[in-house]
């Protein structure tokens, strides 16, 4: 769930956001429906937004019974401590990790690798899968695969890969890139960007070899029911928790 000014929003290719509802109510709903985990990302993360987001994390922790990860505006250890103290199970770092890779090591050392999710926003371009900063606004010279390997070596417990090319388009996940990541890494890879129908989730697992699949709009706007999706995946040979 992308959160902006205390509200859940969803865009296409990282732009054109529209409202999707209250993040606490949605989180409780998804928890009750059988989601395995939730991810909350503060996509504006201004100074005041951080305070608002911390209060939101506390409310989520009081309402949901499944693990949840939070990210956005995490630049130093006190940010991590603040969000974990508010009730989050894991933190997701993206731009800050690229700017200061040592932050991954610090989080892993102080809180354990399982707490540190390194999120990577990458766009498929003619020469490479290019990593971007600041919610897909700033290109870098970092390549998805080399950066994911470095993040793992520094102590990341999971990689959350969002394909900017596929985000919100609903044509399926970036399965070729996911498959390569799964071969290169020995930590879980979470697929993000592109879910539009049940078969896309199946393909992310069976073709992309992803360990988990994240989706937003298909759930926010009632296009796919979580329980129905998991039942379908089980019939397709995907190991899911029912």
Description:
With 242 residues, this protein is of the alpha/beta class. Helix content is 40%, strand content 26%. It is built from ten helices and twelve strands. It has helices spanning 23-33, 47-63, 77-85, 95-99, 102-111, 144-154, 175-184, 198-206, 217-220, 226-235, and strands at residues 2-4, 7-12, 15-21, 38-42, 68-71, 90-93, 116-125, 128-133, 138-143, 158-163, 189-192, 212-214. Strands 1, 2, 3, 4, 5, 6, 7, 8, 9, 10, 11 and 12 form a twelve-stranded mixed β-sheet that branches. The radius of gyration is 17 Å and the shape is globular. It starts with a strand and ends in a 7-residue tail after the last helix. The model has no long low-confidence stretch (mean pLDDT 91).
